[in-house]
Amino acid sequence: QDIPVIAIDGPSASGKGTVAQRVAAKLGFHYLDSGALYRLAALAAMRSGIELKDEHALSEVAAHLNVVFADAEIRLDNENVTDVIRSEECGNAASRVAAYPLVRAALLERQRAFCQIPGLVADGRDMGSVVFPAAILKVFLTATAETRAQRRYKQLMEKGMDANIATLLQDIRERDARDSNRSIAPLQLGAGTHLLDTTSLDINQAVDRVLCLYAEIS
Ligand code: C5P
């Protein structure tokens, strides 16, 4: 039986995580936050003192991640790291770690295992291109870098974390460049993928667009 997958890819801080989660909740589907896996791999590596250049050691860490995705929290080695992995430090480290083919390979099956009845909404950079190429709906969710920096700023403030908007914008631009220009699984708008620019949309409007696209094909 074909299990429907909705792939939502896009650059950092585009809002794809929130949109994907809400679409999943509306449809009663499972949800995969693939970026969290790269963030967890980076965090686990940093905690073990592994250099972010050591591809082999990084892939070992990625392959043996002891992670639990509970309802509202993510646990690494039985510690709640839900907020820790959202830091800019972890995001930047994740983007470095994610450029290594061995790391991506180590996380591939773990991602595919999320595809279970009745369906899955998966967000990341290569959900539609690599992990779930047969996804029934592929969306590329984006917004201008300035809008994304503002959204990330607001998000960090709400979590009581320290942030500077100029630094965030610079980080976002660097991360965009790294994620889009890497040789393996780059972030790209692929054929058959719907472009959804959320610069002037709020979350509810973005969620509705995705649900409409899904309703048209299901
Ligand atoms: O989406 P998020 O910002 O949490 O992802 C963190 C980093 O993980 C990204 O900058 C990207 O380099 C990497 N990533 C990836 N492929 C995915 C999801 C995330 O390379 N499917």
What's the total number of strands? 8
Sheet of most strands: 5 strands, parallel
Distance from N terminus to C terminus (CA atoms, Å) equals: 15 Å
Q: What is the C-alpha radius of gyration, as a whole number of Å? A: 16 Å
Number of domains: 1
Task: Assess the beta-strand content as a share of residues.
Answer: 5-15%
Name the poorly predicted regions: none
| Share of residues in helices | 40-55%
* Class derived from helix and strand content: alpha/beta
> Can you write the helix and strand succession as a string?
EHEHHEEEHHEHEHHEH
Instruction: Characterize the overall form.
Output: globular
Descriptive overview:
One of its GO terms (molecular function) is ATP binding. Its main location: cytoplasm. The chain is an alpha/beta fold and 218 residues long. It has one domain: P-loop containing nucleotide triphosphate hydrolases (Rossmann fold, 3-Layer(aba) Sandwich), CATH 3.40.50.300. The chain is built from nine helices and eight strands. The strands form two sheets. The protein has a five-stranded parallel sheet with strand order 2-6-1-7-8. A three-stranded antiparallel sheet has the order 3-4-5, with no helix packed on it. β3 (67-69) and β4 form a beta hairpin. The longest helix has 17 residues, at 165-181. The protein is globular and about 50 Å long. It starts with a strand and ends with a helix. The model has no long low-confidence stretch (mean pLDDT 95). The structure holds cytidine-5'-monophosphate. Cytidine-5'-monophosphate binds next to α2, α4 and α8. Cytidine-5'-monophosphate (C5P) binds at residues 12, 34-35, 38-39, 91, 94-95, 98, 124-126, 175, 179.
